Amino acid sequence: MITGRRSSNRGFTLVELIIVVAVLAILAMMGLPVYTEYVQEAHIQAAFSNCTVFGHAVEGYIAKTGDATPEKADILPYLNESGKALLSSATYDFTVTDGNVSVTGPYGSKYPND
User: Fold this and answer.
1) pLDDT digits (tens, 9 = 90+) for 38-79
2) Most CB atoms closer than 10 Å: which of 9, 24, 54, 78?
3) What is the largest CA-CA distance in the chain?
4) How many CA atoms within 13 Å lie on the side-chain side of 95?
5) Is 79 within the bounds of a domain?
6) What percent of the chain clears pLDDT 90, i.e. is strictly above it?
7) How many distinct structural domains can be found in the chain?
8) Which pTM value belongs to this model?
9) Would you say residue 2 lies in a domain?
């Protein structure tokens, strides 16, 4: 005769699932500030790198033409396509004073290396 037996594989209870979700949420809250800090630092480093690229482009323009007062449009031929797009945004600007190039980006001046 076959008797009805209950299977011992019942799965997880609702309380166990809620505890696991709560622990994962706490871990995510602890890790999120660190992640956002790394992302912000990456943006800052990219902006500083762009400042260096623009500074080299201005120096290249000055070396080739001898004109110490370039405009943004003057250095566009010395930049690649992504550099041209960045420079056309109002975020980056440069000044030339007594032959010294200073580039200012969204996080301050970084060219020449400060």
Assistant:
1) 988 888 888 778 778 878 888 888 888 888 778 877 877 877
2) 54
3) 103
4) 6
5) yes
6) 20
7) 1
8) 0.60
9) no
CA distance 45 to 103: 14
Could you tell me if 110 and 103 are in contact, meaning their C-beta atoms sit under 8 angstroms apart?
A: yes
Q: Do you find a cis peptide bond into 112, omega within 30 degrees of 0?
A: yes
Q: Is 98 left (phi over 0), alpha (psi -120 to 50) or beta?
A: left
Residue 8 within any structural domain of the chain: no
Q: Shortest CA distance to 95 belongs to which of 114, 79, 85, 109?
A: 109
What are the structure tokens assigned to 21, written together?
Answer: 């979700």
What is the 3 state secondary structure string of the chain? CCCCCCCCCCCCCHHHHHHHHHHHHHHHHHHHHHHHHHHHHHHHHHHHHHHHHHHHHHHHHHHHHCCCCCCHHHHHHHCCHHHHHHHHCCCCEEEEECCEEEEEECCEEEECCC
Tokens coding 50: 């762009």
What is the domain extent for residue 102? Answer: 14-111
